[in-house]
Specification:
The chain is of the alpha/beta class and 419 residues long. The chain has 18 helices and 15 strands. It comes from Phycicoccus sonneratiae.
């Protein structure tokens, strides 16, 4: 039995792409726009010993699974093809044939590519999930790749969160600027106000608000982000209004802020830590102060860990839940929710823009971080785009206030910002 015959025996229905293997066999339409080649026995071992997205990722990132018909910086069409494939559980005959092909050594999982993090159970050695040490390591794994790499992929805004497109044909930069404008306006910020930006990244929101006369403190667990942001603040002459600290948000002791923005941090803190997280924010706000929480969510309200590929290669320890759970936790912390909205489709457009940048700068990105890491990013961003388009993941804004004891918020009766 050939490798192609084994593939054909476990696929339920026709293949939308061509699959070939190092033994010379092939299955699927010869004229297909996209072609997958299992190029080595190690690639087959990756696929056999870790069925699903983890095995595919290992083989692809290592170069043992080769692809024709898509650019590695944007394998969106390939992933769309694969998402329609349905697999059957392999029978005894297929398992025995694989065992014969690979031998005992081949049925032992090969060492994963160097870009892979330890599995969750192995990371327990670093301490309980979401303690400050382990959170710092998780952030370092993802965000301290290379500032130059991020400049090429994210573009001039250096903004690694969902943009807000004023129109479908807007540029990525226009949409990111519009996102910061929207957050600023929702928070009702004015010159002289004080803003705390938790998980500030490279300081995009910090600088946006400081340019408009707001005093801003941003915190990030990524040293590389903090250094980049501090340099950008100095170059723009904003040091009298803007500060970015390399720090865990839990180390912030200042309070009395007029507003808190949390843009893309909630995904990292763990659902069980929401009460402490939103309680911390409540305690940092003055009475009447506002919170804008921007985070990736599920279309349901169950707590879910990210899949194996995302957890091992992208966001170690990441957890998601639905907007309803987030709103409940915000309310239980004593904050009053005034507005929420779903920007899911905007994130699909944002990811498409990042993939275009990666394709455009592919050779430079590979030179900067290596081909394996660049492949991880293309795979992750294209797969995430597909997830947002298909409503498997969402992005919600939740706006809340620290209402006074008298129940008065002091806010306008209707939304005061333009969409």
């Amino acid at each position: 039995m050939s490798i192609a015959q084994i593939v054909e025996s476990v696929v339920d229905g026709p293949l939308p792409l061509r699959v070939e293997a190092y033994d010379g066999s092939g299955v699927g339409p010869a004229e297909a726009a996209r072609r997958l080649t299992v190029a080595t026995p190690r690639g087959l071992s990756y696929l056999a010993t870790a069925p699903g997205d983890l095995g595919l990722a290992r083989a692809y990132v290592s170069g043992d699974l080769r692809v024709e018909g898509v650019h590695p910086g944007d394998p969106y069409d390939l992933l769309a093809d694969l998402s329609g494939v349905r697999f059957r559980r392999p029978g005894r005959e297929q398992v025995l044939e694989l065992s014969r092909m690979l031998g005992v050594r081949g049925l032992t999982p090969p060492p994963p590519p160097p870009q892979e993090s330890l599995p969750r159970w192995r990371r327990l050695a670093e301490g309980l999930r979401h303690n400050q040490t382990r959170d710092a390591e998780a952030i370092h794994h993802h965000y301290d790749v290379s500032n130059r790499f991020y400049e090429m992929v994210l573009g001039p805004s250096m903004t690694y969160t969902c943009a807000c497109y004023p129109a479908a044909d807007a540029t990525l930069e226009e949409a990111q600027e519009n996102k910061y404008r929207l957050v600023f306006d929702k928070l009702g910020l004015r010159p002289g106000d004080r803003l705390l930006d938790i998980g500030c990244g490279w300081g995009g929101m910090v600088r946006h608000a400081a340019r408009r006369g707001v005093s801003v403190l941003g915190v990030t667990l990524s040293r590389e982000q903090a250094l980049w942001a501090q340099k950008a603040i100095a170059e723009e002459g904003l040091a009298d209004l803007a500060e970015v600290r390399h720090s865990d948000y839990r180390a912030v002791t200042e309070s009395g802020f007029d507003a808190v923005s949390s843009i893309g941090l909630t995904e990292h803190i763990g659902v069980r830590n929401y009460p402490a997280y939103f309680g911390f924010i409540r305690d940092r706000l003055r009475t009447g102060g506002l919170l804008l929480n921007h985070c990736i969510t599920r279309p349901h309200n169950r707590r879910t860990e990210t899949g194996a590929f995302i957890d091992r290669y992208v966001f170690p320890d990441g957890e998601l839940t639905g907007s309803g759970r987030i709103i409940t936790e915000v309310q239980d912390a004593g904050l009053e929710v005034f507005h929420e909205e779903n920007l899911r489709e905007h994130y699909a457009l944002t990811l498409a823009g990042w993939c275009r940048n990666l394709v455009e700068h592919w050779d430079e990105c590979v030179e900067e971080v290596g081909e394996g890491t660049a492949r991880v990013w293309g795979l992750y961003m294209a797969g995430s785009r597909l997830g947002f388009e298909r409503n498997e993941i969402q992005l919600h804004h939740v706006l809340a206030a620290k209402t006074g004891a008298d129940g008065l918020s002091g806010l306008p009766l209707r939304p005061w910002w333009s969409t």
